[in-house]
Amino acid sequence: MTTTGAHQDGAGTAARGYGWWGRRRSVVLDVGLALVSALECGLEGTSFAQNAGLPVPLGVVFGLLVGSVLVVRRRWPFAVVLVSIAVTPAEMGYLMGLVGLYSLAASEAPRRLIGSLAGMSVVGTLIVTSVRMRQNVTDTGIDTHRWYVPLVAVLMSVGLTAPPVLLGLYVGARRRLMESLRERADSLEQELSLLADRAEQRAEWARTEERTRIAREMHDVVAHRVSLMVVHAAALQAVALKDPAKAVKNAALVGDLGRQALTELREMLGVLRSGEQVAARQAAGRPGGAPGTVPAPAAVPLAAVGLAAANAAAAAAAEDGPGMADIEALVGESRDTGMVVELTVQGESRPYAPEVEQTAYRVVQEALTNVLKHATGSKVMVRLAHRESEVAMQVENGPSDDMQGAGPRLPSGGNGLVGMRERVTALGGAFVSGETDSGGFRVSAVLPDRSDRSDRSDPSSSAELPGSRVAPGSPVSPDRGAV
Questions:
Q1: Range of the domain at 409
Q2: What pTM, to 2 d.p., does this model score?
């Protein structure tokens, strides 16, 4: 049963209201049915007036009024059915009864009300039909069996009541089903919209993470090499006229460091490009695609490409990057600048996961770079400890001998410690940094051995390296000891 007073036209603009009708054709249909019903009842009203001894015009007017009630079938279907039951003894309103029962059954009225009014209609039609047929049989004098009148009366009453009720119940159930499906479609559309928004957020997160990782790699690769180049360039400037041989040596070192920096940058950028291509093929479901084949952007979800590219590029960079075996060469480069660096290794060295190897190397590299920038001339202790289920490293420098500003001043972006902490915590390790009591600075990190997935705990893993002590108030995980 529709009760809305306005509808939307094809252009989506609100049209004028039509009372309780939602559409113009509903108005035309109901008014047309009401006119036909009024005409029918008016014609049947003449017979009713003659049989009741009333004036014929009065019967016609009564029939017209009764038949016009059908115009409110959508708003008050039960009223139409009650009027049709009431005029059943007058043998009028057959169309009104059929349409009224259909409208009532198709509406949202309670099933108990529909059954009650349908039963009243059956009983009323059965009584009137039985009486009329007995009168006809008596007037005509036709000899019929005893069961003839009841059978015909039951068939007529059921035939005039059951079809419209069943059809109305079917149409009402179908209408409710369509409304339920429409609501589910709207709900699914909203869910798809939310999923699309979340996918876009994940893609943006992946892009942000990738930019951060690239910036961190650039910082680690460039900062150390360029810092060494600046130191050697300053030394070259100082000894160019006094010691030409040493100047030539420093110039060669600057060239070697520059070439190493360019080589590392090219390798890193190549890994990023290859990682993005592999991730795109994986996201498109073609891990074995032909070389150089890149899927169409429309066929690859942004979030899948962003996350897969970040993971693939990070894994490839870790495998191709430097490892713990290169730390000794790294210390040697720092010694060439004049720094006093002592390297101590405890435990038996063994291979680790690529990401652990590279993270350990980058932590030591960035710590030595910070010493070169901020503590020129200080003595540096680099300690490595290979434990049962983890590897620990510590870089500690004493007070700087260059407190008056001698030597080159290198710019600092303040991201070195942040980058080291991000690298270590991303692997589930612990990172501590802070000043020492002697005026120096200490960087400590503990990395789990990711190549060994067994959950083992060793109390000795929390022991400190000889000669190390964490500054009071340093942030350290309760289940990880300081290095």
A1: 338-483
A2: 0.46
